[in-house]
Amino acid sequence: MSSGDVSSDPPEARLAPLAPSAPGPQPRAVPAAAPAPSRSFGALRVPAFQSFAVATVALSLGVWVAMVGQMWLVQERTNSPLALGMVNFFWGLPVMALSLLGGVVADRVDRRTVLVVARALNTLLVLLMALLVTSEWLEVWHIMAFSFLQGLLMAFDIPARQALIPALVPRSDLMSAIAIHAAIWGSTNVVGPALAGPLIATLGIAGCFYLAASASGLAAFLFFRLRTIPAPEKGAAPDPAVPPPNVLKGLAEGLRYLRGQRAIIAIMLMNLVPIVIGQAYISLIPAFAANILRGDAVTYSNLLSAGGIGALMGTALIAAVGDFRRKGLGVVLVGSTFGVALLALAATSSVWPALALMAVLGGTSMSFWTLSNTLVQGMLHDHVRARVTSVYQLTWGMQSLGNLFLGVLGNTIGVPGAIGVAGGVSLLGIALVLTKFPEVRRL
């Protein structure tokens, strides 16, 4: 099945309650006027998506193991919330600055090739970091520089990977595929920190980096072997909106398309504050574990693992349920629960309540992203998919500003106060978007 067959349906351009499909030509893969009901985990029955999922497991495992090692190194050497925020700031800065360019590239170049090159270069970066740790030459500024370069690669990796998913599965399995992809990240939130904690305790930080480099190299190899992945636009009918040869014109076209999509804009705005400010709480967890809970690397690992368990449970539940109406209301509810959980975490200083709240935060944040991404991807034409996805990705890139903001707050008013601000601002942001776009609850 070609990517044109999978995602050529015209999107809903306005915020409105779900309604039966309008009359007109339908994609060849869909026998009826309305999409077939989504099957629970149906995307895993598609061979191309199976291979893609295995490669993503390796990729995300490498990302999380390296992240745990880097953050704990900075905590050990500086004991500074601001330094922790700066590491994440340097990672997110290129994602924020170059994600639009990454989307244009993903619409013009084979998306599989983008993933292979990004993972291969990341493997070399993490391996070099491991060698510097082994030789005891690694400094904090090295970690900042490595974070920036890893973020640079992710600016091209993320839009290519996200835009590739709808080309791998029938439209009826799109929500399943997106939820499974999110569940992979949630499950590696469990496996990555669970591996990193014992590695730090027994083999040292270098063990984390060697494992991360191996996982990243495996991902590059698996993406390279995915010969059956359809190239972008393969099989699509001639379209005057095919990405133009000029990069700036391609970017302008994507932005013009987005300007007319009120529903997509509403979901992006709904994501803005909880992701940019709220989700940045994760950069303070090493300091929270060490200074508030009086723990060590194992405590930090356990907190992240609890969040991963919650993320896995939340996204697995969404994948099992399949497609359903009123996803917009689900976005509002899980986003609000996320903000309340942050306020509760700010008020606790005991390990067990913190673990429970981290599980709630993991489940709500992953569910929030999964439902939002499903709504956005389901509204897009394939010829602008990567470019619009890259705009959506800007919220994650802008999280670098949130990391820096919470780092400064953590240094000024303390880590619990900064986490509490993140929760309160997240709730306020959702309320403001609902005031402007009350129809989002009916999406």
Structural notes for this entry:
- Helices cover 73% and strands 0% of the residues.
- By secondary structure, it is mainly alpha-helical.
- The chain is built from 16 helices and no strands.
- Helix 6 (174-202) runs antiparallel to helix 13, helix 12 runs antiparallel to helix 16 (415-436) and helix 15 (399-413) crosses helix 16 (415-436).
- The protein has one domain (40-228, 243-442): Growth Hormone, Chain: A, CATH 1.20.1250.20.
- The protein starts with a helix and ends in a 7-residue tail after the last helix.
- It has helices spanning 3-7, 47-78, 81-108, 111-134, 140-164, 174-202, 205-225, 247-259, 262-278, 285-292, 297-321, 327-346, 351-377, 385-397, 399-413, 415-436.
Task: Output the structural class.
Answer: mainly alpha
Strand % is under 5%
CATH architectural type: Up-down Bundle
Total of domains: 1
Q: CATH homologous superfamily - what is it?
A: MFS general substrate transporter like domains
The gross shape turns out to be globular
Secondary-structure element series: HHHHHHHHHHHHHHHH
Q: How many angstroms separate the termini? A: 28 Å
| Biggest sheet layout | none
Helix run count: 16
Mean pLDDT: 77
How is the secondary structure organized here?
Elements (H helix, E strand, L loop, with lengths): L2 H5 L39 H32 L2 H28 L2 H24 L5 H25 L9 H29 L2 H21 L21 H13 L2 H17 L6 H8 L4 H25 L5 H20 L4 H27 L7 H13 L1 H15 L1 H22 L7
